Fold:
Amino acid sequence: MVSEDKDKQPQVTRNRNFAMALKNALHGILVVVLRERNMRIHIISAFMILLAGLYCGLRRSDWLWVTIGVFLVIYSEFLNTIVESIVDLIVGRRYHVLAGLAKDLAAGLVLAAVGVEMIILLIIFEPYVYRLLWH
Ligand SMILES: Nc1ncnc2c1ncn2[C@@H]1O[C@H](COP(=O)(O)OP(=O)(O)OP(=O)(O)O)[C@@H](O)[C@H]1O
Structure:
């Protein structure tokens, strides 16, 4: 009985094995997708980019750049969510100018990543779109 109750306690110790680490990592991905509307937008965009790439018949080297661009945005959204969670943990609902700055910086990182992704997509897709329109 005692050990059963102990098992139900929230985990605050290190992962004991790879399966636990994997389960917690997948939980992190699930939470960011469910909690962050922007992450869902990035994932839908990534899916549309995938379809556009298949339609255009991108070369292998093009796919590498597209993958880097898409991942950059998703990576930065993860960082943004991590910063928000830590800031909220520390300050809660209280106002603090540094809490606001940290969140603004994290949001700025996502915006910058989206900008880089747009540049990569323009460079990669431009010749394919040009060919589709004029040939
Ligand atoms: N505790 C706080 N103290 C000061 N300013 C805050 C605080 N919490 C949030 N803010 C300000 O409000 C903005 C929005 O806060 P919120 O927590 O919704 O950020 P957000 O979750 O980054 O938005 P999004 O989910 O769209 O990325 C922040 O960018 C920051 O300027």
